[in-house]
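re: that chain from earlier
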Amino acid sequence: MSFNLFLYYCAIFGAYAALTAAFISRLATQGVTNELLQSVIDGALVGALISFAVGILDTVWSTGKSDIKRLVIRSLGAGFVGLFGGILGGVTGSFIVRITGVQFFVLIGWTISGLLIGLSLGLFDLVFALATKSPAPHDNKIKNGLMGGALGGFLGGAFFLFFKLSLGAIFGRENLLSASGLGFVALGAAVGFFIGLAQVVLKEAWVRVEAGKRIGKELILSKPETFFGRAETCDIGLFGDNSIEKIHAKLLMQKNRYLIADAGSVSGTFLNDQKVTKPTELKAGDLIRLGSYILKFNEKPGKKK
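^ sequence. v structure.
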């Protein structure tokens, strides 16, 4: 999946998740007149479902793994953090609006919700690594998620408020085609899109498949070890070439350096047409060849060593 396609799906997944949250909320709060309770339920559902949806997409894209158990655990973990963030944001926004009487301050609540939704995946990965005593992921995942989530929450909240205030009298509030329903869709799309955008724009290093069956696939390097091969568990699966081993090569992240290492393959791993016999440091533009596949290593210009 290319970066552009990833951003598109982030927005779509976020929008559908928020629309689902709006649908469930309307069913669960029929007859509820307490605005604080309504805000808590809305926030909880939006936070949990957007985090869960983006968690599924991010897991499939960033790890490339078909491990259903890992996919479900990671997505549910992210959803739990998003649930907490949604409740906190809903309570905060509703409380400030009640005190001040100014609807604009609801944006504070949605910004908090977006921030914690953006935090959810990076935080889960960190906790999981600590619990399993595995190498900790790069902290950029957390920082980028926080920035993207906060921006998405603020801008999405602005769209939500716009639809609610400007179109509420026309559409009403009691169905999914209402102003609030449209606002939820805009909110979800914005949060999903900006979480993805922060990852893409602020990435430090990535690889792109230049030749082989998966031309155009891109992967941000955010793990201590990234595996390439025919196995379904590899981060980038290189299928359709029997000369490629199940675990053919791995890319290592050591502080601010990236190294390519062969994993004991028969056909070998080549860096700029030179066979890799030991872990070798990469630089921007390097070409890694594994069988019929060619991967290009890219690094952010001016990155500190």
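The first strand starts at residue 205 and ends at 211.
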